[in-house]
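Please produce the structure of this protein holding fructose -6-phosphate.
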Amino acid sequence: MLDDIPALKEIDKGDALGVLEGLPDACEAALKVADALELDYSKPSRVIITGMGGSAIGGDLMRDWLKKDVLAPIETYRGFQLPVYAGRKTLVIAASYSGNTRETLSALKDAISRRCMCVAITSGGKMLKLAKEKGVPYIQLPGGYMPRFAISYLLLSMAEVFYKVGLIEKHDEIHATIGLLKELRDRLKADVRTDKNPAKLLASQIDGKIPIIYTFGPFKAAAKRLKAEFNENAKIPAFWGFFPEISHNEIEGWASDLSKNFFVIFIRDKGETAGTRGEIEATKGIVERKAGVGELHARGDTKLEKILSLVYIGDYVSVYLALTQGKDPTPVGTIQELKGKLVDW
Ligand code: F6R
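Below is the modeled complex.
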């Protein structure tokens, strides 16, 4: 079914496949959009990236990418009020693609009142209005995406803020990563048949099961992203866990017959240590007594290449899974329903 392009297009009314195919080009556009930001903050002592859902995951990806290279602690904050230690030397990046997410708006207001070094990243809405009113520097993203599909813009805008405050050098890693994403696109896009397309293959294996992603090291945000993409694109439950923690609790659950409803995707990397490799292989052996198992391999050499290749392949897997099941990946009716029921504040 995944090789019947007219049938895919018929289901994919929101053109998620088109958005994914355009992702490497969106990364290039994002660099230009973010470059316009002018900032006179320098060297914060810590960074808090505040947001929710598809806008927050960029913060987790930044942390996985940079936490071993940047002296300032980086954290992602999902909630209404910032931690008590947020102060004048804290860089607060508030990211809300729509600009109307109540938690993020509240956290930005909190950051402004505590005189943090604030930056807003948004396509418009109340956040853009607030930033203009309060003189908060902002990056305005182009509209028209679902927030999760604007990951290129959100992530690279965050990287630009890190650069402009002197936390990272402007390095070639980003350009090399975009090059890799272009190569990957040619292996993942819709007209590459299932037997040659790793994303279609993995989606066909998962079909009918509940996915769980097991990850390690700097690939936690990539796993968390994939879990959310399964939720939002394929509209199914999904979970994730990470080594070595799962070896101390979650592994025990695989003795249960309930486990047969799951499919575990193991994140792999050619640079994984012998210890990690052994732990993954041993866990796989236990899990496959009951559940389906598969692997998702990071590509490239640098940390950013590896992380974003996992994100890109995973996004495609989730979209192909949705289409296999006859679901249009783009609309998120249940999230909208819930947001409509929440009381304004
Ligand atoms: C929808 C999505 C959601 C939103 C979240 C916050 O595509 O991914 O997780 O990102 O509801 O909304 P924004 O991103 O507009 O602040």
